Amino acid sequence: MNIYAIRVIYKYEMLRFRNTLMQSFASPVISTALYFVVFGSAIGSRIETINGVSYGTFIVPGLMMLTLLTQSISNASFGIFFPKFTGTIYEVMSAPISFFEILIGYVGAAATKSMIIGLVILGTAGFFVPLNIAHPVWMMGFLILTCISFSLFGFIIGLWATNFEKLQLIPMLVITPLVFLGGSFYTIDMLPPAWQTVTLFNPVVYLISGFRWSFFEVSDVSVALSLFMVLVFLILCLVVVWWMFKTGYRLKR
Amino acid sequence: MSAIVSISNLSKTYADGHQALKNISLDIEYGEIIALLGPNGAGKTTLISTICGIVNASSGTVTVDGYDIVEDYRVTRSLIGLVPQELTLGSFDTVTETLCFSRGLFGKKPAPALIEQLLKDLSLWNKKDNELMSLSGGMKRRVLIGKALVHEPRVLFLDEPTAGVDVELRKDMWALVRRLRESGVTIVLTTHYIEEAEEIADRVGVINNGELLLVDDKQALMQKLGKKQMVVELKDAISEIPHVLSEWVLELSTDGQQLTYTYDPRNLHTGIASLLRAISDAGLLLKDIQTTQSSLEDIFVDLVKKKI
């Protein structure tokens, strides 16, 4: 295994994160703080508890997921798209490095950044609402798996995109609606019966449900199913990336 | 001498149907400098990119030091350094950082002393902490060379290395290429500057429309295909070539003062001596004589024209 290559890619990507520290942290932290002000205090104070959890506290896992998903996708997609755009990708493609090592470098760095931001948001949430995490290990497990899976998904988008517009297309048109409709701010049983069935086709529901269970021991679907769905998504993304590297899709001419 | 890079029946057809390489076979020998000459779009960059792993071949095989570029890509790529044609560099990294990155990518542990020496050799030491975006085009070209050399490759591919660089830098690069060859590095250079090939190459390959038209020793090529011309300047102008000189293929200049004789220098009897005697016998007075050897450029243009 080319450890040095993984290390330099990872370090390079993390350095990019450090150079844009303000925008990397400021944007998600300010957005989350605003969500707490609007949903937690202004609206949340008028909403009853959900499954015995105050509304402000209830939305914490959903808000974290919202940020984790968007940050993972944006970090990973930009990380691989930018060298493609500038042409510096030639160096990676001509180096003695396997697709798996490239993945560990780029996706590992993107997932690390998302995790850091996720934890910062958790800390920010602690300033607004009382937090008690029932299963911290499971919480970290879901956090790590989600960051890796969606960083992989972002990596696929970065490989697929041929311009900046395409880079933004899927996160804006697909991911954001899925997260908002995935139970970030409500439980599925609050929806009309027909929509409860429809929403089960939304993969984000399983992520948020499992993540929320690790906080409050309440979930929309079983934890095992949540975990299974995250792993299926992870494997699916790995297969797609493997195929992209094998065929050289959008990488090699 | 055996081949460090062996290309066998290599073809590449792009998705749009354009056939960039047509059944190319070529052996590149250890320690040589080979120049691949060809006009824009001839297939030079595709050939290099395929060997380096950036382009997938449609058919054919390539080995580097006996290892297959697909099966044993880790070995072959670690032996190769590539300087691309475009100035493709990041913006915010410093010169030292980008060299460290390249060395790591190729699986080599950090070597600050080696990087310092390389930067000094490339006259980049005083720019080591500068951000890449602040460098001039020539400096960026040097950085790209540094990045290609920092993992100590045994074969260096230079894709149009002096495109758009000034004369001074071009000469610096030629000197660097010679030094690298002396250290045992094999150099493969693509260019459409004939003078570059003429100046530094041991062998020259000519590519056009994806075909390798020929590969030969530079001197042998010039001897084999090169023609020589003798220009005889006359003291007094003449209106037509005297009948007694019809034995030789001569051209008379429009001002009637120059006779040009084209001959093959490889022939034992070039006909020069007898021509000069015949000119004298015809009563023409000589003012001056000069001979010229056709350059690699003349040969290249000739070859490419024949194939179009």
Give, in spatial order, the strands making up the sheet with the most strands of chain B.
Answer: 6-7-8-3-9-10
Uncertain runs of chain B:
none
**Tally of helical segments of chain B:** 10
CATH topology of the largest domain in chain B, what is it called?
A: Rossmann fold
Unreliable stretches covering 5 or more consecutive residues of chain A:
none
> How many distinct helices of chain A?
10
Strand content of chain B: 25-35%
Summed over residues and divided by their number, the pLDDT of chain A gives a mean of: 85
Short description:
Chain A is mainly alpha-helical. Chain A has ten helices and no strands. Chain A has helices at residues 3-19, 21-43, 55-86, 89-93, 99-128, 136-160, 164-180, 193-199, 203-216, 223-247.
Can you tell me about this structure?
The complex is a heterodimer of chains A (253) and B (308). By secondary structure, chain A is mainly α. Chain A has one domain (3-247). Chain A contains ten helices and no strands. In chain A, 44% of the residues are buried. The model of chain A has no long low-confidence stretch (mean pLDDT 85). Chain B is an alpha/beta fold and 308 residues long. Chain B has ten helices and 14 strands. In chain B, 33% of the residues lie in helices and 28% in strands. Chain B has two domains: 3-223, P-loop containing nucleotide triphosphate hydrolases (Rossmann fold), CATH 3.40.50; 227-293, Alpha-Beta Plaits, CATH 3.30.70. The A-B interface holds A 2-5, 7-9, 12, 16, 19, 86-88, 90-98, 248, 252-253 and B 14-15, 49, 52-56, 73-78, 80, 82, 84, 86, 88-93, 100-109, 147.
